[in-house]
Design brief:
The protein is about 30% helix and about 30% strand. It has a 3-stranded antiparallel beta sheet, with helices on one face. It has about 60 residues and is an alpha+beta fold. A hairpin with a 5-residue loop joins strand 2 and strand 3.
Length: about 60
């Protein structure tokens, strides 16, 4: 299986602002993963510090079957 994280970055933000926001997102979701079984099909929306949905994480199967 694979863990996928997709986050839309604000292309108008500075590199520093983008790095800070992405770091916050990674810390928050990394800290909350223990609440999930982490099986294929699990996933959730990802929100920025303004509570806007900016992406999604998911667990997907790598089985060919």
């Amino acid at each position: 299986m694979k863990f996928r994280l997709e986050v839309d970055m604000d292309d108008t933000a500075s590199a520093e602002e983008s790095a800070r926001e992405l770091g916050r997102i990674l810390r928050y979701w990394g800290g909350n993963l223990h609440h999930y079984a982490l099986r294929p099909g699990d996933g959730s929306a990802v929100h920025d510090s303004g509570y806007r949905e900016v992406g999604r994480w998911s667990i997907v199967s790598t089985d060919a079957a």
